[in-house]
Amino acid sequence: MTLIGLSLGYTVTVMTRLPWWTLFLVAAAWIGVGLKLRWGQPANARYRKMWPWSLVPLSLWGVYVYLADSFGIVDLGAVFFHLQAGIAKHGGAGKMISAVLYTLIMIGVLAAVTWLSRHDQRWRLAERFFAIILLASNPLLYGISQRSAAIVTDDGAWLDRRYKPPPAEELRDAPNLLILYLESIERTYSNDIFGDAYASLNALGERGAVFEGVRQMDNTGWTMAGMIASQCGVPLMPAGLLHDSQFEPLSKVVPGVDCLGDILAAQGYQLSYLGGASTQFAGKGLFYRGHQFDTVKGREDLEPLLENPEYVNSWGLYDDTLYDITADEIRHLDSQNSGPWGVISLNLAGHAPNGYPSQSCVERQGEFDGQDILYSVECATWLAQDLVERLDSEGLLDNTLVVILSDHLTMRVSVWDQLTALDRDNTLIMLGNDIEPQRIRRDATMLDVFPTILDALGFSLERDRAGLGTSLFSNNRTLVEAHGIEVLNERLREETALQHRLWEGISPQRRESDEPSQEVTQEQTLETPADAADEVELIH
């Protein structure tokens, strides 16, 4: 009874904003009711050897609570994608230990429920209904059932019809491009309740365009999804059953759409990706190499360059050494004078749950307690500002568009309750010769970052759109402004055509005999005035 009570109390604290100590109140109430009703020791006990119906539903709830406790928000798309893209060389050793602990506790809970059901006929009768309630209430199964419903949906091409291929024009006087992805450093940290954690990015933002209101829609809430949304203008819909070889890792990542790398490579850009973590994790290497980056380097490539090989964390390089290597790469590309360059860097300092602050930050900020994510956020933002200022002082950012953004909203961290009580949005800051200092408040998503970057580089976009996004410098409405994020998420759960587009080339090809009927179906699909509302310009 104690084990079940503590587990129930812990589940309540994970699923709500109640403080951790309330788990003991829940456990005490549970144990009190159990003692009062003599659970496991009824007056007329009749032992029966049986296996409870609720064992499987309880196990599934255990999986969900583990995911919710580890990441804050459970994203099934992330689970499915990582299973196919690969999770080699990850730095989540602590998560593995936590998973083992969860497993042992769940085994104990299942054993306790089995014992009670065998020794108490009241439990034998009640647990069958309990099993139904557990299945019906599990958000994990709810998400799976919603995605499965897409197979029989009336319109599985709502998003695909709104997809706008990116421009293929020749760009004149192409500027260089530097993109700094700051792991989990969302703009919400700029709120005063978090002190000076975001102050360095606020200082950088005064020199350029700061975008507010870049929200997180479904299938854009983890690193690869955030990068694909902001570089391809599409949510990352996992290949799932579309993948030809279900038991083989992915060979390509979203090969069916042209992304930023494809567009810039056609313009003669020299492209480099540098990340502190391994490129083998979650298909990062596959994505960048498959979309025409010349240099793709992660932990396995950069670690041998370190003066101190032991100066790494469980995920990879600390930000100060990563940024030193990034600066060297930019110097090298700039010295070649062989056309414009594009460099993308992904840091690690803000990675949940506690972050990985660099030694240079410890020297500046004092000792790190190992828990406070705001310490790590301050470290990440300060090092990003320092890199930009170093490069600027060397003249390496002349005729260069600098984009600083978060890859996604953070997962569960030490200030999770404060973050989730606010309206959260992603970081997006752009600096450049032709970008006036300004603050732009738009209801947008990471999908809109893609056309905004293209617009800032000088591309002419049809109706200011590319992919599913709209340039935030324009007056045209974003999909969120036209329809609302709830509608987008609902449509995404029903979408099948866009998923086929993303994975074209590695998904089973549709039979030719199916094509005429499919075309007829699409011709018969009529859009309502609300569907077409995203074509209307904003009125200021």
Summarize it.
The protein has helices at residues 2-15, 22-36, 55-71, 76-85, 93-119, 121-137, 139-148, 199-205, 223-232, 260-266, 284-290, 299-302, 319-336, 359-365, 373-393, 416-420, 449-457, 479-483, 485-494, 497-502, 515-524, and strands at 176-182, 209-215, 270-275, 295-297, 341-346, 400-406, 428-431, 438-445, 465-466, 469-470. The protein has 540 residues and is α/β, with parallel strands linked by helices. It folds into two domains: 38-152, no CATH class; 160-237 and 255-535, Alkaline Phosphatase, subunit A, CATH 3.40.720.10.
Q: Could you characterize the architecture of this molecule?
A:
Strand 3, helix 11 (284-290) and strand 4 (295-297) form a beta-alpha-beta unit. The protein has an eight-stranded mixed beta sheet with strand order 4-3-5-1-6-7-2-8, sandwiched between helices. Strands 9-10 form a two-stranded antiparallel sheet. The chain folds into two domains: 38-152, no CATH class; 160-237 and 255-535, Alkaline Phosphatase, subunit A (3-Layer(aba) Sandwich). It is built from 21 helices and ten strands. Mean pLDDT is 86; it is low at 509-527. Helix content is 44%, strand content 10%. It is an alpha/beta fold and 540 residues long.
